[in-house]
Structure formats: C-alpha cells, structure tokens
Amino acid sequence: MELHVGTGRADQPVQYSNQVSSSPMPKLPKTRGRPNSREAMLDAAQDVVLEGGAGKLTLDAVAKRAGVSKGGVMYNFPTKEALLKAMVERLVEHNRHAHAQVTASLPDRPGRSLKAYVMNSVRALDVDDRVSGALLAALNSDRNVLAPVAEYFNGRFAKLTQDVPFEQAALVYLATEGLWTQELLQLSPFTPRQRAQVVRMLVRMAEQGAAVETAVVASKAVPRKAISNKEKKGKS
Amino acid sequence: MELHVGTGRADQPVQYSNQVSSSPMPKLPKTRGRPNSREAMLDAAQDVVLEGGAGKLTLDAVAKRAGVSKGGVMYNFPTKEALLKAMVERLVEHNRHAHAQVTASLPDRPGRSLKAYVMNSVRALDVDDRVSGALLAALNSDRNVLAPVAEYFNGRFAKLTQDVPFEQAALVYLATEGLWTQELLQLSPFTPRQRAQVVRMLVRMAEQGAAVETAVVASKAVPRKAISNKEKKGKS
DNA sequence: TTTACTGTGCCGACTGGACGGTAAAGTAAT
DNA sequence: ATTACTTTACCGTCCAGTCGGCACAGTAAA
C-alpha cells in the first residue's frame, strides 16, 4: 500500500515549504553556504522534545543537537515562541498531507476519510511522530500557540462527518484520538495484541459507515446470550 | 442522584479559596496545627496550572496564589517534585473515590463500572477538574512522576473490562478518554449540544453492555435508510 | 585580476531575570 | 521553652535573548 508519507521531518527535497510570517528570508534560493538548516533545526527540536520532554526544549539543546550554535538558532527563529510555532505548523502541515495521501489510497466509499483518519493516526504511532504529543505538552505552556492545532482539528472533524452519521463518526473519532493520546503518553492499558484488535475494530467501524449507528440505536433490548465470544485472546 | 463528589479540592469551609494576592489577607484564626494550608497550597497550584499552563507552575506563583510566602510552600513540600507528586496523588485519589461513589449509585448490572467511568469523566469536565490535564502536561516533563497515573489507569481499565466484552469496553473507554482529553485541551470540535449527544451515546453503550458489540459484529450489511435522524441539531 | 565594499549566515561570550532551593530569624499556640 | 509554622533574605543555576564579530559569497570598480 505504500503508506510511507514521511515522519514529519525533512526527508525529502522539500525547500522549507511553510514559511512562518515574519521570517527574515524572502530570498528563496538560499543555497549559499549551508543547506537549509531551518529544517534541520526543527528536526533537532523534535528530537529534543522526544527524548527529554517539553521541559528540556531549550535553545541551547536544539542548537547542540542540530550541530549549530545558539546564535544560529536565534538567527533562524528570532524567538523561542517562533520556534514552537514553526514546529507546530510543520507538524500540522505534514499531518494534513499524510491524511490526504492515505485518503487518496482508499476507495471512494462512505467513511473513506474517517478510515483514513484512523489509519493515519495509527501509522503516526508506529512511526516516530510522537513529537506531536510531546509538542502538545509544550504548547500547553503557551496556550496561544496551539490555536492553529485547534483550528485544524475542527476542520478535520467537519470533513469526517460528511461521510458518516454524526454519532458514528464521533465515536470512531474520539476513540482514535483516545488511543492515540494514551499510547503517546504511554498510559495505554492495552497489550500490543489488544491494540491491534482495537485498531481493527475502529477501521471496521469506519468502513461500515452508518451500519453500526443503526445497530446501536436499534439495540435497545438485545438478549445478552447472543454475545459474540469469538473475540477473546489478548490479555496482559 | 446526588453525584456531588467534590471537585478534587478542599470543598469545605475554606476561607480563602482563590485570592488574587494584593489583599492584606485577613489573618484567619490560624488555629494551632492548620492542616488546611497544605490543601490550600495544592488548590493554589491547581489554579496556577489551570490559568497559565504547566509552564507557569512556579513555587512563587503557588505561594502568591495561596497567600503565603515561598518558604511556606517549601515547608510543606520540600521540593517542587514533591508538590507535583502530591498534586498527582490527590488527583488520583479523588478520582478513585469519585468513581467508587458514582459506581455505588448505579444499579448492579453489567457495564456498571464502565458507565460510572463515563459519567465520572464527564462530571470531571463539568466541574473544574481541568487540572488533571494541565497537570498531565506538567508530568510530561518529569516522566517518572506520572507513573502512579499510568498504574491507576491500568488497574482502572482492568476493572471496566470484567463486566463487558473487551472490544465494547475498549471502545467506550477510548472514546471517553478522547472526549475528556479534547475538551480539556479545548481542542474539541463539538458544540455543547453535540457533546451532550455523544455523552448520551457513550452512557447508552456502556449500559447496553454486550449488546452493541453483538450488533457491531453482526451489522455487515444493514441498509442505511434505517438510520435514526432524530439526532441532528447542534452545529457551530 | 585585484581590491574594496556589502550582505548573509552563523558564532559564542555575556546579561539580566527567573526559579529552585537554603538558612536564619520571627511568631504564636502549647 | 518547645513545637509548628511562616517569613525574609540570599545563593547558584539555568536560560532566553543580545551583541559584537567572523567567514564567505557576491558585486563591481580599478
């Protein structure tokens, strides 16, 4: 299926795509002395957050990690908040791109986008996109910085619900988000096997679109003996 | 139903709940051993985190907020990590208590604990328990501090699944967790109305226990026209 | 080609403030 | 006086942000 859509870092000949306002570099060629160190610094920042948590994200740490001096970092990001903002924007952008890519790879049926969302979230866990969460923590400090994220989340959900009945979409959406968060914070109570099982269920639900919704509403008094027991295996 | 189980803070004849400093602080009786001060400081710490994010949680800020000096804080909590730990423990403890309380108020039927979990999580949002999340962010920095939380989470889920088929429990659990997180971080795409709708659905699913699981598995080809449309209103 | 000038990208020492933590002295109930 | 708690003052460290400087590339006049 070739789902490799990148890890959120610069693993392609991308010429620093997303420019953050006030960036002091209108000249695009930029080729002069060094390759684009901006992306390298963002990568470094990601790594730092990943390894030490948001609290360890200092300019010096980023500089060291990126193999430059602090001045170098400050040159590209006039302030720490600018760095954070750039990280967030790159992440959102990457996520949007990845979602689009996965969506495109799926047949155009109801729940397509929702299914893509689930798959993409899981992929994000398998790869090392774990920055998002660590970053999210960092953002918690500067609450205004995560505004773009909120906006992105909103728009995203709006699209997911066009395909699928609201309750259904919301359920899958929330569960996916919950799984993602829990795994990210390493608070998940699931064994790998259970996680896989859950993911399969979510994908299934996204695929089936409205079916489950109907079933849920209809199942007011289903006799319990009818329970399917075939799904019992994983246990820590 | 009497679900008032507290807000996680000292909800008793507390005199100075949230003081904004400046005030000369009317020297209350100050009875001999005043075990209140500890709780008051934890309350203050909660408030600080709530308002400014985890990054603003400094000893000075807590002290000012609590109407004491920094030394006063340091006396009760020899180190900042001790303060964090205390906050976490109080939170977990409170949560455990609340869950037990809600559970007790429900009829002893399958999915009882799960339903209580859902209801309690929502209640936590309605009241101002929002600290948990902010705190959770803080913990992200000192990863070892949130170990007790992880432990608690694990045990909690284990209990929820005793009652209900795994997939069902996992689904409700994750969705609830997702909802909680999103609302907490103010990233939720839902209108209040939609949120209420989702909550109702989750409670319903928890109640019905195994029923939905059966339905999900069975619903391979349910005609979409059977969808209940009665739930369409909220829209931002 | 040489020289002189300009701008870009980066370096790294330094500063000033914030913050965690310490210690000694003070206050009041017992 | 002893104990429980609080305050005031201070220290050391960390860190964002500043600033003067350096190297190199391009430009162009000589």
How would you portray this structure in words?
The structure is a homodimer of 236-residue chains. The first copy, chain A, has helices spanning 37-52, 59-66, 70-76, 80-104, 112-126, 131-141, 147-163, 166-184, 192-208, 210-218. The first copy, chain A, is mainly alpha-helical and 236 residues long. Chain A has 2 domains: 31-78, Homeodomain-like (Arc Repressor Mutant, subunit A, Orthogonal Bundle), CATH 1.10.10.60; 90-220. In chain A, α2 crosses α3 (70-76) and α5 packs across α7. The longest helix of chain A has 25 residues, at 80-104. The two termini of chain A are 31 Å apart. The interface between A and B is large, with 68 and 68 residues. The structure holds a DNA duplex (30 and 30 nucleotides).
List the helices and strands and how they pair.
The structure is a homodimer of 236-residue chains.
Chain A lengths: L36 H16 L6 H8 L3 H7 L3 H25 L7 H15 L4 H11 L5 H17 L2 H19 L7 H17 L1 H9 L18
The structure holds a DNA duplex (30 and 30 nucleotides).
